[in-house]
Structures are given as structure tokens and as C-alpha cells.
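Page 47, continued from p. 46.
Same chain as before, 187 aa.
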Amino acid sequence: MRDLLEELHAEHLYMADVLSVIEAQLALIESGEPADYELLRDAVYFMTEYPDLFHHAREDLIYRRVFGRHHRNRSLGRELENAHADLRALGLAFRYEVEDAVADIMLSRSRLTVQGRSYLDTQRSHMRVEEEDIFPRIADLLDEQDWRAIETALPHVGPVGLREITRRRFRSLHDALHADSSDGESI
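Result:
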């Protein structure tokens, strides 16, 4: 079931691409250039829905298993779950600002970009910690019995591949992410 760690890694790569779309739009806003606020809204909405509701839920399940069995790391498991909750709150606050911008509600461009940069930095830092420290630690600590228990606990109805989600719901985001890709590969 180490394949699940590989799936989570692939999702991190995809999420990093979505974060790059957000960053590019924030750079346009900061420079006073016209930004595509609808693309920004789609990217932020995607990041506050898919990772928060599916990706992090699967990570949390793994964290509870590994850090429940290896007690000296239990506080780390709680920290990671709390970090997911904090990312959700930070992402939703940013999303509401972006939605106001799309609706032409008067807002501070500076406030929008500060929130956006904070979200980007926090999300990237969190993924880096998981990739460089947490995932390798999990791979070393869990055995096949653990992976079978995790597999059993995973919801049987999961989301389709990330490319398919973006293609169906977020056409402009999908096009921005896959403009140079015609391989049709699905994550």
C-alpha cells in the first residue's frame, strides 16, 4: 500500500502546479496588471476543496495509524492534523477575499495579496515537511498489516483523478495547468 504514499506525492506535485497558477495571478495583481480573477477563484476553490476534503483526510488517516502505534511521535501526528485544519481556515479566508474580488466587491488589493502570499507560503512549507520528513518516516514505520488496515479504513468512494476534476469543474484552471500537456495522463 506504499502506493498510497506515491499517490499523495503525485497529488502534492499537482497541487504545487495549482499553487503556481495562484502565484502567477497574485504577481499580476501586485504589479497592477490585469489578472484573471475567475482563474484565481477556480484555483483557490480547488485548493480549498480537493486537498482539504480528500487529500488531507487520507493523510490524517495515515497519521493516526502511524503515530497512534508509535507513541513517541504522537504529538507530531496531532500537529500535522492541526496544520491541515489551519490550512483550511487560511485557505477559506483567502477564497472569500477572491470571491469578493470576482463579485466586484470593494476590497484592498494589498490585503488580498498578503492573504494569498501567506496561504502560498504556508501550503508549500507544509507540503515540503510532509515530503522531506513525514512521508519517509511513515514508509519506515508502517508494515504491510498497517497498510492493509489503512486500505480498509479508506472511504471506498473516492474522487476521480485530479486532471479529471479540474477538467470537469474548472475548465480555465485545467487549461492553464495542461496547456503544454497532451499526454492525457491522469493523476
